[in-house]
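Deviation from plan, reported transparently: zinc ion complex.
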Amino acid sequence: MPSYKILGTILTKRPFGESDAMIDVLTVSRGFETFVAKGAMRSRRRLVGGLEPFTRSEFTVYQSRPGKLPIVQDLKVLVSRFELYRDFEVFTRLTEVSSFLAKSLPPGVPEYEICDLFEALLSAVSAGGRAESLVLSFFLRAFGALGWRMDVGACATCRKIPEAEGDYVLDFSEGRLFCPTCRPAPSQAAVVLTSLQARALAALVLPPRLKAGIAVDPAHERTLRQLIDRYLLWHTGDTHPRHAVARGTV
Ligand SMILES: [Zn+2]
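Because the crystal trials were delayed, the predicted structure below was used instead.
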């Protein structure tokens, strides 16, 4: 049966049947894909640890029958990222990104920007960047790539970066930030942010690339996480698992 090669990064691996594994992969040419790795839960020898989350590999896969999930025949590990498993917090944050991607991306549709962002995130965390801030920045950028842009780098009306003191307003329905001068009347779809919070939010999207240096004051991270979570809920009716437990009001 004909096989083909495809480049991608593993998002998640889970048991499938007695000894097989099902792996979700973010591929470069076909976006989100799910493959079956035969015997992967019994012996890791054949696929030599290349099925762990965040590993980037070149997969050789084949489809046994139309409509069946492709099966991994072989793989060549290009980047293994075992350093990301050392810190449980870091691993948990990145796993949340993986499940977000697995839930949000339609199978078989190329998502070049998301692929680039995810690789940039993994590289930046591997390089010692602060995972919490980088993940927040990733989410803001990924929303843009998925069509729910959150425009928080500057005031939506006057386009000034958030330097002025005072209360800012973040409108969830359109993902827009307003400075103290331009802010609209309060509405159900909006939250008020302090200037420090608005600055921290802007700091996540202002640098042009997702790099190890991106970090916001840890004091604001929890609030920003809740904002991003609420925004996600607003736009998808869904949320990622951690916040289902720890959600509060912003
Ligand atoms: Zn303004």
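The helical segments are 88-104, 112-126, 131-145, 195-205, 218-236, 241-246. We consider this an acceptable substitute for the interim report.
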